[in-house]
Design goal:
single chain, 20% strand, 3 helices, 47% helix
Length: 64
């Protein structure tokens, strides 16, 4: 996938569901509803809790 395809896919989406920060961050920053799924990697939770939890269009889905 080229950068242009990556950027276009995020720009055109209404809802983004991902476990990757490099997708969640640009998605949320342009206003898409974004669901960040916990992958068990502590970095996702840390970034969400410290930086993204106050962003109204991004949600963190914890692993059971």
């Amino acid at each position: 996938m080229s950068f242009e395809q990556y950027a276009s896919a995020i720009k055109e989406a209404n809802l983004v569901v991902t476990n990757r920060l490099h997708v969640a961050l640009p998605s949320a920053s342009i206003g898409n509803t974004t669901i960040l799924i916990d992958s068990g990697y502590h970095k996702l939770r840390g970034v969400y809790e410290r930086s993204l939890s106050k962003v109204p269009n991004i949600f963190f889905l914890e692993r059971p």
